[in-house]
Amino acid sequence: MIDVLILAIALSMDAFAVSIGLGSKHDKKTTSLALMSGVYFGVFQALMPMIGYLGGKGILGWVDSYASWLAFLLLSMVGGKMIYESYVEGIEEDIAKITHRVMLMLAIATSIDAMAAGFTLNILAVNPFIACVIIGIATFCFSWTGVFVGEKSGIWLESKAELLGGIILILIGLKILLA
């Protein structure tokens, strides 16, 4: 279960980073923005790994002998992408007004990686439904907190959160490969 908690925290870092950016740049009521951020990011981060899990379950029989390598490659690619994105400007830079449509687009954009990571739920000895709920709750909490952190600290922490999340995902991939 510790693997699921670590995975949940790592996957939450993308949404946490975006939430920090949103909190630092927008004058909307902070509590309302934090709730909106938590709900959108939490729901999508919970749904996308389930989609990845179900898709992976269908192909796992074909690639069973390579499953550890495939999980390592997927998590490394997602982690590498997060590390790269920690050095470039975020997608929330040009957003002037936070609407439900904007939040929907941000939630989808930040959770696509979680779909790839969801494949690894086939390899971990965990209940995928419980894992997705944990991922969703962790993302809600990090997103909620991120808006308040962004309001208080600005964006200096934004890239560091994505960098940490990327490193953690790569380490999880290595653990699966070496286990």
Molecular structure report:
This protein is an all-alpha fold and 179 residues long. The protein has one domain (2-178). It is built from six helices and no strands. It has helices at 2-25, 30-60, 67-85, 100-118, 128-153, 158-178. The longest helix is centred in the first third of the chain and has 31 residues, at 30-60. It is elongated. The two termini are 15 Å apart. The mean pLDDT is 82.
Number of domains: 1
Biggest beta sheet attributes: none
Molecular shape: elongated
* Overall pLDDT: 82
What is the count of β-strands?
Answer: 0
Oligomer: single chain
**Total number of helical segments?**
6
List keywords for this structure.
179 residues; mainly alpha; elongated; 6 helices
Task: Walk me through the topology.
Layout: H1 2-25, H2 30-60, H3 67-85, H4 100-118, H5 128-153, H6 158-178
Helix pairs in contact: 1-2, 1-4, 1-5, 1-6, 2-4, 2-5, 3-4, 3-6
Short description:
The chain is mostly helical and 179 residues long. It has helices at residues 2-25, 30-60, 67-85, 100-118, 128-153, 158-178.
